[in-house]
Amino acid sequence: MNKKLLVTGGAGFIGSHVVRRLVNKYPDYHIFNLDKLTYAGNLANLKDVESKPNYTFVKGDIVDADFINALFSEHRFDGVIHLAAESHVDRSITNPLEFVMTNVIGTVNLLNAAKKYWAEAYSEHRFYHVSTDEVYGSLGEIGLFTEETKYDPHSPYSASKASSDHFVRAYHDTFGLPVVISNCSNNYGPFHFPEKLLPLAIHNIKNNKPVPVYGKGENIRDWLFVEDHAVAIDLIFHTGKLGTTYNIGGNNEWKNIDIIRLLCQLMDKKLNRPAGNSEKLITFVKDRAGHDLRYAIDSSKLQNELGWKPSLRLEEGLERTVDWYLSNDQWLSNVTSGAYQQYYETQYDGR
Ligand code: NAD
Ligand code: DAU
Q: From the CA of 210, which ligand is nearest?
């Protein structure tokens, strides 16, 4: 093995796609997946790689500095790809402190460990922080987020991610830590936890339950198939310029109501329901507090410098996603039992 990589949050949605890609593509790397296994972490996401010789799962909390230091001391990682986070905006409105703990303190703990254990040869290491386009705030009807857009976060989630990005940059500028950051738009695809819009809607349509759309459904998001994000992460980790940021986006802007209508049409076909059946489930509910209107990404830097581009149109990616959820019933039933039910009742007033 010539490289030991620490991936944090590898049992989550995006992390599991990143771990799978790295374990399969780089048999000479050893991939350590560090995850606390919160409600969002699920080892079932990685069943297909769990017995590979170049993969090790470590259960632990990035908020625990002693534990993180001991892990770095034991394994002397060559690189870190940091994805572990509290990731759901609605939960950040209910419990902001949890987001500060994991997203800010947890990130600083990792930076401190990297600074300490890599001090003798920074040039042989790399700390990659995976972040979000939400740090840039909200766009009006025109314009795109570039890497130069001023940070303007509105939710406790995006404020905690913005803070973590600032710390990562500060460790580069102050201590010379070899860091790279990316800020990506909304991902979708297999293993997406059904608290997020698309998997929640797929689950509810399948079960003939109301599909909650916040406000008037006018908010716009840019959607990227999760495997395309994993490809970008692999590329940026290996070839991204240190001390810089890359925006990642799908070039796929959709109003929430339009993407939900498209999903309803697709689900009618897949479930052999009469056309228009699933759309009747759409229910407009109370808007999210501080709801950002529009996100849209200019990813030309990543495309021009590193040669990445999204491989799927949303229509294709959505069909692949729906097919996956319909043929992975057990995964969905497992994650929607227990604590999820309680969350759902509170978030949507028992609808
Ligand atoms: P997720 O919620 O599905 O997964 C997060 C993972 O982190 C889970 O496995 C969880 O168990 C783990 N985790 C949480 N707290 C932890 C802690 N204290 N210690 C160790 N592990 C912990 O999130 P995701 O959607 O896969 O997002 C991954 C990363 O990508 C996050 O940093 C997020 O901000 C960023 N991101 C997400 C999107 C998106 O659309 N989902 C887009 C851009 C950026
Ligand atoms: O932009 C990147 C971000 O995308 C990531 O950093 C976050 O981790 C990820 O959760 C996602 O944030 P969003 O808030 O955009 O995703 P979510 O799926 O929660 O919501 C998408 C849009 O749909 C948003 O405008 C809110 C709306 N929505 C969401 C839910 C859960 C609804 O209308 N109804 C819902 O029930």
A: 2
